[in-house]
Specification:
The complex is a heterodimer of chains A (about 250) and B (about 475). Chain A contains four helices and 18 strands. By secondary structure, chain A is an alpha+beta fold. Chain A has two domains: about 90 residues, DNA Polymerase III, subunit A, domain 2 (DNA Polymerase III, Chain A, domain 2), CATH 3.10.150.10; about 120 residues, Proliferating Cell Nuclear Antigen, CATH 3.70.10.10. A nine-stranded antiparallel sheet of chain A has the order 6-2-3-4-18-17-16-10-14. In chain B, helix 4 packs parallel to helix 7, helix 10 packs across helix 11 and helix 19 crosses helix 20. The longest helix of chain B is centred in the C-terminal third of the chain and has 24 residues. The relative contact order of chain B is 0.08. The C terminus of chain B is likely disordered. The chains are: A alpha+beta (about 250), B alpha/beta (about 475).
């Protein structure tokens, strides 16, 4: 049994975020809310999302896992106007997810649960953490994209730095703790290089967060955390670092 | 459902793998190179017949060295773009776990069929001459994407193939990969392995039965275990050899056909199809041949063929557009589509081998000869083989048969052999007389002329 009503933009954000990494996903409609984990095919990036019961207008589930093709969900959500409510229910006999927007309904056939592998979330310990405005991060990424396919993030106790470099061009962005541009917790300086494609797409897909927390280490996976859907949803994005060119 | 024995008894460590000790040692050495950071070749190719343990060895290696595994196989999106994205991305990134030293092993299973489309286009007789003709097709799609990934990777890559030549002729794989060959597993080893499984399953199976299964497996461990499971499941004792099937491809296909025509459950059919060692498109031929034998009602026949024709459409698109994602639809239509087409009870039928394949087999010699002739004609006329076959060959044959001076010129210019002439005359008796006449010229004169042909074909043309 599933009966969930949620604001279209909340669900849209979830779908957009997941779709940056995968085409098909297992959504776990638990008793207390929705949880989703997805890892990209090359195991380089992972997203973990959870929406508590309170982020829904109405939520009731007996606990189930549904495998969904994201493109289809995306299509139907395009029909919704901002603020409109989307109702999700599950037709057990026909094995379909029913998406209702006002008087419109779409029946989405579900995929075989076994066809999507489980994502295992690794346990990570990061040495440095920075909380920055999403807008600042977006600007930094957009600027870096124009010169390079990857960027370096560096966190020192007093400064947060983004850097991108190509053969001739170079960009950098510095945010200082003193000026209140960034919050930093770092015992020692940390620096890692990440590919931009996934990172950039995920950052673009975030729509309802103002601040994000970036955790890094020395040549270590990135963990970006943010709250969305009015603080009722939490998201974690993990990205493996680029290895240095030589082995 | 209980686990299949092949899965249940799949070795987790290299040391548990039967046979192929040398190959496994080579893999271990290669992995140790990665661990110490002195890598000579960043990728290895494991080549060998199905069921000898290539995939198992790759996974066992990862397990033993604590590497994460990323596996891509034929059913994953296989166009060059997807491969490039996934492989390249995985190659240059470290693992998500944050453990810097932990490598990610990239396993590309069925790497040789990444080029299905390419090898189809290059089809033709294997001649030295035809060889350079094929070159043009070689570096398209998946091969170059994989080679690029190998060039930059910071993670170990294993390519698994049934036929290494299929792979190595597609690019510089020999230079950049270490090639490790897996041989058929010795039947005594297989027998020991089967005995071990029987012991842990607590089933008493007669020595002679194991012997038979081991012999018939032809060095294919997977099929041997499957065969054992087939005869032993649900029993505590197997004493006679009855029920031990002869393992050959046709038998498997017949079993699949039987299931398709009888069942409606796609999952069941798919499971059987997975064990059939035959390309899916070839299967369409088998199904096509046998639909009329099983389905008798016109309605069933029509919808059965309809489903199959749609499958064929998808297969066409897979190769034409390189959209390997469409494969699964083609296969589902071919199996499930035909299976659910029946509304009436199917007839118990004796299945037969596809007529198309028989005809192709029978005409193989003829087709190859035509190909060889058209190759020569094409070169001479500066046209492609296909064009020569279509536009020139029919007239060439006609004129050759009827015009003596044309015949003489052509024999000289195309360097046709008496056998070629016989073929053009369709092995008519007349050919012998003409051959005698054609090849009775003084040998010296012949030589001279040949030389001048070599010197400059253009000049020769002007002179005449």
């Amino acid at each position: 049994m599933l009966n969930a009503k949620v604001k279209a933009e909340t669900l849209k954000e979830v779908v957009e975020l997941l779709h940056t990494l995968v085409d098909e996903v297992k959504m776990n409609f638990g008793k207390e809310g929705l949880g989703v984990k997805a890892v990209d095919p090359s195991h380089v990036a992972m997203i973990e999302l959870s929406l508590t019961k309170s982020s829904f207008e109405e939520y009731k589930s007996s606990g189930m896992e549904l495998a969904i093709e994201l493109e289809k969900l995306k299509e139907v959500l395009k029909l919704a106007r901002p603020g409109e409510i989307v109702k999700l229910s599950f037709d057990e006999d026909k094995n379909k997810l029913i998406v209702e927007i006002a008087s419109f309904r779409r029946f989405i056939p579900l995929l075989d649960i076994g066809s999507i592998s489980d994502a295992k979330v690794p346990s990570l310990t990061h040495s440095a953490k920075a909380v920055i405005d999403l807008e600042a991060l977006r600007q930094g990424i957009r600027g870096t994209e124009s010169v390079s396919s990857h960027l370096t993030i560096e966190i020192k106790p007093d400064v947060f730095k983004l850097e991108g470099e190509s053969e001739q061009d170079k960009v950098e962005m510095m945010l200082y703790k003193e000026k209140g541009e960034v919050e930093i917790e770092a015992k020692e300086p940390a620096k890692s290089m990440y590919a931009l494609d996934y990172f950039s797409n995920v950052v673009k897909a975030i729509s309802s967060a103002q601040k994000v927390t970036l955790n890094i280490g020395k040549d270590y996976p990135l963990k970006m955390e943010f709250a969305f859907a009015g603080g009722n949803g939490t998201a974690k994005f993990l990205l493996a670092p680029r290895m240095p060119d030589s082995i | 459902m209980t686990e299949m024995w092949v899965e249940k008894y799949r070795p987790k460590f290299l040391g548990e793998i039967r046979g192929n000790k040398q190959a496994i040692e080579a893999m271990r050495r290669w992995a140790e190179e990665w661990e110490t950071g002195k890598v000579k070749k960043r990728a290895v190719v494991l080549s060998g017949k199905p069921g000898v343990g290539k995939t198992t060895a790759a996974h066992a290696l990862a397990n033993e060295f604590g590497w994460a595994v990323i596996e891509l196989n034929a059913s994953d999106a296989r166009n060059a773009g997807a491969i490039e994205d996934i492989v390249l991305r995985a190659a240059i990134h470290s693992d998500l776990s944050g453990d810097e030293k932990r490598k990610k092993l990239l396993i590309l299973d069925e790497a040789d069929s990444l080029y299905e489309r390419v090898s189809r286009e290059g089809e033709g007789p294997e001649g030295a001459e035809a060889g350079d003709e094929k070159e043009d097709y070689s570096d398209r799609g998946g091969a170059s994407a994989i080679l690029r990934a190998i060039a930059v990777t910071s993670n170990p890559i294993i390519l698994i193939v049934n036929d290494e030549y299929e792979l190595t002729r597609k690019g510089r794989f020999k230079e950049v990969c270490e090639i490790i060959k897996f041989r058929r597993v010795d039947k005594r080893e297989i027998k020991k392995l089967l005995a071990g499984i029987c012991a842990s399953e607590k089933i008493r199976v007669e020595e002679s039965v194991l012997q038979l299964i081991a012999e018939r497996s032809d060095g294919d461990v997977r099929s041997a275990i499957n065969d054992l499971e087939a005869v032993a499941t649900g029993r505590t004792q197997v004493t006679t050899e009855e029920g031990v099937g002869v393992r050959d491809r046709e038998e498997e296909v017949y079993a699949l056909l039987g299931t398709i025509f009888k069942e409606r459950n796609l999952r069941k059919i798919r499971e059987i199809q997975r064990n059939v060692d035959e390309e899916p498109e070839k299967l369409t031929l088998w199904i096509e041949e046998n639909i009329p034998r099983a389905y008798t009602h016109p309605e069933d026949l029509a919808s059965g063929f309809d489903a199959l024709s749609k499958a064929d459409l998808f297969f066409g698109r897979v190769y034409r557009r390189g959209r390997y994602g469409l494969w699964k639809y083609a296969i589902d239509l071919m199996l499930g589509g035909v299976a659910v087409a029946k509304k009436h009870e199917p007839r118990f039928a004796q299945f037969s081998f596809p007529m198309f394949l028989l005809k192709m087999r029978d005409t193989r010699d003829t087709r190859e000869r035509i190909y060889a002739l058209c190759y020569k004609l094409g070169r001479y006329c500066h046209s492609s083989i296909a064009e020569a076959k279509r536009e020139i060959y029919p007239y060439f044959v006609y004129i050759f048969r009827h015009n003596d001076s044309f015949r003489r010129q052509m024999v000289r210019k195309l360097r046709l052999t008496p056998d070629d002439v016989r073929f053009i005359f369709d092995y008519d008796e007349r050919a012998e007389i003409i051959i005698k006449d054609l090849y009775s010229q003084k040998p010296e004169k012949e030589k001279e002329k040949q030389k001048s042909v070599e010197v400059g074909r253009g000049q020769q043309k002007l002179l005449e």
